[in-house]
């Protein structure tokens, strides 16, 4: 996880908003699906990173308390 992941999530979210605003839904559907999938994958990676970081901090505090 790095700043690039967050930048991609923000950029693709903006692109998804543009695709959703298109008057021709049939043309936009495939693009929306692909963009949403990449957003989900990147967001999931960020989520996993922060969860691992939180667990490591909690384990460190527990060790220090002993």
Could you provide a short overview of the structure?
The chain has one domain (3-65). The mean pLDDT is 83.
Give a description of the structure.
- The longest helix is centred in the last third of the chain and has 41 residues, at 25-65.
- The protein is an all-alpha fold and 66 residues long.
- α1 (3-20) runs antiparallel to α2.
- It contains 2 helices and no strands.
- The chain has one domain (3-65).
- The protein starts with a helix and ends with a helix.
Name some characteristics of this structure.
0% strand, 66 residues, rod-shaped, 89% helix, mainly alpha
Q: In angstroms, what is the radius of gyration?
A: 18 Å
Q: What pattern of helices and strands is seen along the backbone?
A: HH
- Derived from helix and strand composition plus strand pairing, the structural class reads mainly alpha
Number of discrete domains = 1
Query: Mean of residue pLDDT?
Result: 83
Give the helix tally.
2
Q: Show unreliable segments.
A: none
Overall 3D geometry?
rod-shaped
| Number of β-strand runs | 0
DSSP strand content: under 5%
Q: Helix fraction?
A: over 70%
Distance between the termini: 31 Å
Largest sheet composition? none
């Amino acid at each position: 996880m790095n700043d690039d992941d967050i930048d991609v999530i923000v950029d693709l979210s903006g692109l998804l908003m543009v695709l959703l605003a298109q008057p021709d839904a049939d043309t936009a559907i495939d693009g929306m699906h692909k963009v949403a999938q990449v957003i989900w994958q990147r967001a999931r990676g960020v989520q996993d990173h922060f969860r691992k970081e939180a667990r490591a901090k909690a384990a460190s505090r527990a060790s220090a308390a002993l």
